[in-house]
Amino acid sequence: MKLVIKDALQDYTEAELYRFLEEFFEDTDTNDLDDAAYDLHISNLSAHFSELVSHPDGNALIFHPSPGRDDSPDGVILEIKEWYANQGEPCFKE
Question: Distance of alpha carbon 6 from its chain centroid, rounded?
Fold first, then answer.
């Protein structure tokens, strides 16, 4: 699946956000970028993630997971889903 950048979390399906998060955890098409370009790419995605997600931990969900939470796209998505459910707010596009 191709990486898609959208304006709001509720515009993403769960699968699309998973693909977005893979940029932080998996080898993707960014492997061909030099170090500076890769750092800029991750920095931009990290800032965008913080804007997308209302969770108080922001991009720390990716870079500093809570003890005991799976350090993976699945773990981040689970924490986002739980937090939004506890807030009574919508999360992903169906």
Answer: 12
Residue ranges per structural domain of the chain: 9-87
CATH number belonging to the domain at 9-87, selected among 1.10.1200.20, 1.20.1540.10, 2.30.42.10, 1.10.10.10 = 1.10.1200.20
C-beta of residue 19 within 8 angstroms of C-beta of residue 3: yes
Determine the average pLDDT of the residues in 56-76: 94
Quick one: angle between helices 14-25 and 73-87, nearest 10?
130
Task: Write the pLDDT tens digit of every residue in 22-54.
Answer: 999 887 777 788 889 889 999 999 999 999 999
Nearest alpha carbon to residue 45 among 64, 22, 27 = 22
Average confidence (pLDDT) over 73-90:
97
